[in-house]
């Protein structure tokens, strides 16, 4: 069966790295795209090593090709015909066009945004909850909005855990990564009470599918 | 870029990487994908468990 790493514009430029379990990389032409795959007798097991091997292949493909549409870990197809059939009707060419020339930058903001634990009554609880929501929205205005302005696209999640206040991803043209980093640094300087962690550049995993399909 | 220690930054970077590889990216319908349980196992293996309790709380402890 075929294990899929990513889709690139055909012809794929295959980097000199091996795939999951040391398997060699190959390309399977689907219309104007190449699916970058490796062949396996058995389904690939989910393991830390396999996840990191998948990531390494996608990273290397991003370096060797103009644009890359990363596949989620674990996608396998019985054979080339099954892969082609599964891809038919998916707007992968459009998706590749959206991310071309861009990298993804990740942002996590840690800090305190008020506790709900001390609320004694239902009304107090609701008030505390509303207050936290407002605080998170203000934070998004101050941190996310200026960064999103530098990006072609972005995702945002607020208050995922009590202290993880903001999680975001930005699709940034390669040439604008430095300016993005400088903006993050100035936001951190303006908010010493927060831990702002910017990671990347990543291949555009978070933008590989259209906004309306994202979970 | 932030107040976090290099070790903590490394943890966040690994978390961000695993998050992307396991939860983002194209899923081509009709393919044989991993079950949620498989994905959870990877997280446990990496001991990040999306760190809603683990890594992130510990990172928070390092903040001023």
Task: Explain what you see.
The complex is a heterodimer of chains A (215) and B (64). Chain A is of the alpha+beta class. Helices cover 34% and strands 27% of the residues of chain A. Chain A has 5 helices and 9 strands, in the order βββαββααβαββαβ. In chain A, the strands form 2 sheets. In chain A, strands 1, 2, 3, 4 and 5 form a 5-stranded antiparallel β-sheet that branches. In chain A, strands 7-8-6-9 form a 4-stranded antiparallel β-sheet, covered by helices on one side. The model of chain A has no long low-confidence stretch (mean pLDDT 90). Chain B is an all-alpha fold and 64 residues long. Chain B is 58% helix and 0% strand. The longest helix of chain B is centred in the first third of the chain and has 18 residues. About 14% of the residues of chain B have low confidence. Chains A and B meet through helix 1, strand 4, strand 5, helix 2 and strand 6 of A and helix 1, helix 2 and helix 3 of B.
Strand tally of chain B is 0
Outline of chain A: elongated
* Assembly category: heterodimer
Query: Radius of gyration of chain B, rounded?
Result: 14 Å
Q: How would you sum up the major sheet of chain B?
A: none
Give the fraction of residues assigned to helices of chain A: 25-40%
Order of helices and strands of chain A: EEEHEEHHEHEEHE
Number of strands of chain A: 9
| Terminal Cα span of chain B | 15 Å
Beta-strand level of the residues of chain B, as a percent range?
A: under 5%
Percent helix range of chain B: 55-70%
Which structural category do the helix and sheet elements of chain B fall into? mainly alpha
Number of helices of chain A: 5
- Count of DSSP H/I helices of chain B: 3
Provide the low-confidence segments of chain B as ranges.
47-55
Strand/helix succession of chain B: HHH
Mean pLDDT of chain B: 64
Structure classification of chain A = alpha+beta
Distance between the termini of chain A: 27 Å
Greatest contact between two chains: A-B, 58 and 40 residues
Largest sheet of chain A: 5 strands, antiparallel
């Amino acid at each position: 069966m075929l294990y899929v790493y990513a889709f690139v514009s055909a012809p794929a430029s295959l980097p000199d790295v091996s795939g999951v379990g040391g398997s060699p990389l190959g390309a399977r032409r689907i219309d104007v795209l190449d699916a970058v795959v490796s062949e396996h007798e058995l389904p690939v097991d989910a393991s830390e090593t396999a996840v990191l091997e998948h990531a390494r292949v996608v990273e290397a493909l991003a370096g060797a090709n103009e644009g890359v549409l990363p596949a989620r870990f674990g996608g396998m197809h019985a054979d080339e015909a099954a892969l082609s059939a599964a891809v038919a009707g998916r707007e992968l060419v459009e998706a590749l066009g959206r991310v071309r020339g861009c990298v993804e930058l990740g942002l996590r903001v840690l800090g305190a945004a008020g506790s709900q634990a001390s609320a004694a009554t239902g009304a107090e609880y609701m008030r505390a909850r509303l207050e936290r929501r407002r605080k998170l929205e203000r934070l998004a205005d101050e941190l996310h909005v200026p960064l999103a302005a530098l990006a072609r696209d972005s995702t945002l999640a607020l208050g995922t855990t009590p202290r993880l206040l903001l999680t975001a991803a930005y699709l940034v043209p390669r040439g604008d990564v430095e300016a993005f980093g400088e903006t993050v640094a100035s936001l951190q300087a303006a908010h010493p009470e927060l831990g702002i962690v910017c990671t990347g550049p990543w291949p555009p995993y978070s933008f590989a599918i259209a906004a309306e399909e994202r979970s | 870029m932030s107040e976090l220690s290099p070790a903590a930054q490394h943890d966040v970077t690994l978390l961000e990487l695993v998050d992307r590889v396991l939860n983002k990216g194209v899923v081509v319908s009709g393919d044989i994908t991993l079950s949620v349980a498989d994905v959870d196992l990877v997280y446990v293996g990496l001991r990040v468990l999306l760190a809603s309790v683990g890594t992130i709380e510990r990172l928070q402890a390092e903040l001023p």
